[in-house]
Design brief:
This protein is α/β, with parallel strands linked by helices and 367 residues long. It is 35% helix and 19% strand. It folds into two domains: 6-158 and 298-330, Rossmann fold (3-Layer(aba) Sandwich); 162-293 and 349-360, Rossmann fold (3-Layer(aba) Sandwich). The protein has eleven helices and 15 strands. A seven-stranded mixed sheet has the order 3-2-1-6-7-14-15, sandwiched between helices. A hairpin with a 2-residue loop joins strand 14 (324-329) and strand 15.
């Protein structure tokens, strides 16, 4: 392969704690090898729409620029979860909007900028794009980013630990207010169609019930469980609901369908809250943690794996790798083909230890 002199890094999809730590590791490791490192603003928009950015669509990432960003949440490059370049929404003369594949244009723009490789930080959608670019000849290494932990091929993604840690702290706080008023609290967490955040938060935070996308729920059974707990002397209850949870025979709660982007989920906790209020006759409140799970400083665990992932991505490029994702396989970081990492969503296995433990701890899973 051509010797590397100049690489790019971008962040796509939803933001997650740890993105800046990866960016710093990529920039510093590349600098040590004598490579230039450049950041692309807001996914690929820095190349597609440079006029949008007064300071330019690209930013040179020197060690000085990335100094002191490991502990910062968000991403200094900005990100976007709309405008998928494989299905780019394009307005037609008649006013209709169609999805157009602009991946060839991206590859051409990379060549114009004389980038030899790309380190793509993202989840399932962003790494699917990265895989398509790799197939077109662009040298690409992916880094698994998502608070949802739904990427296959890696034990964990960065951002997940921070999200679960914060959500658990929120449940700790809700226990005290729920107990004070003898209320039923329904708490919605992110995760889309994978229940990892809900399951880990619910177990760690002492929830009475956890509703997951992987297990269609029956609210009458949930209500019966909560009523039984009340009969045993517990005056309040906490129910954790994944945003993509579904009732038996139902569908996920969607508040907006979008062209060129994933549907926006929302309303799961509100729906469950209203139904359980009727079934249990308890005063009920619902809380949506939402984007609070994406913000703030990464935990020590997320900082460490982010820095390891960033260094490993540059190491992979130096070794001649392309079309792969760095993945945590304790105690090492290994390389997984992007096609393998994105071919399916990693959902919660129904026979995993966490599911078994939840049941043994007396937590209702809605079935």
């Amino acid at each position: 392969m051509k010797q590397i002199r100049k690489i790019a890094v971008n962040t796509g999809g939803g933001d997650a704690p740890g993105l800046n730590a990866v960016i710093r590791a990529v920039a510093i490791t590349a600098h040590a090898k004598g490579w230039e490192c450049w950041g692309i603003r807001e996914g690929y928009n820095g190349l597609f729409l440079p006029e949008r950015f007064p300071q330019g669509g690209l930013i040179r990432l020197t060690p000085e620029v990335v100094q002191g960003i490991t502990n910062l949440g968000g991403t200094i490059l900005g990100t976007t979860n709309v405008g998928n370049p494989l299905k780019y929404p394009t307005k037609q003369p008649d006013g209709t909007v169609v999805e157009v594949d602009r991946s060839e244009e991206i590859v051409s723009l990379f060549r114009q900028q004389e980038f030899d490789a790309l380190v793509a930080l993202g989840g399932d959608g962003s790494l699917t794009i990265a895989n398509a670019l790799a197939k077109k000849g662009l040298r690409v290494v992916g880094v698994p980013k998502t608070i949802d932990n739904d990427l296959d091929g890696t034990v964990i993604t960065f951002g997940f630990d921070t999200a679960v840690s914060f959500a658990t702290e929120c449940l700790d706080r809700l226990h005290t207010t729920a107990a004070s008023h003898r209320r039923l609290m329904v708490v919605e967490v992110m995760g889309r169609y994978a229940g990892w955040i809900a399951l880990n938060t619910g177990i760690s935070g002492g929830a009475d019930a956890i509703l997951l996308p992987e297990i269609p729920y029956d609210l009458e059974k949930v209500a019966a469980h909560l009523n039984a707990r009340q009969a045993e002397g517990k005056s309040y209850a906490i129910v954790v609901v994944a945003e993509g949870a579904v009732s038996k025979g139902g569908t996920s709660a969607v508040i907006e369908k979008r062209v060129g982007a994933a549907d926006r989920l929302g309303g799961a906790a509100e729906n469950v809250s209203h139904a359980l209020a009727e079934l249990t006759k308890k005063e009920t409140r619902h809380v949506v943690l939402g984007h609070l799970l994406r913000g703030g400083s990464p935990t020590t665990f997320d900082r460490l794996i982010s820095l390891r992932f960033g260094a490993a991505a540059v190491r992979a490029l130096a070794e001649g790798q392309s079309g792969v994702m760095v993945a945590l396989d304790p105690p090492t970081v290994r390389y997984v083909p992007l096609a393998q990492a994105t071919h399916r969503m990693k959902v919660v296995p129904l026979d995993c230890d966490s599911i078994l433990s939840a049941r043994e701890l007396g937590i209702c899973l809605g079935d």
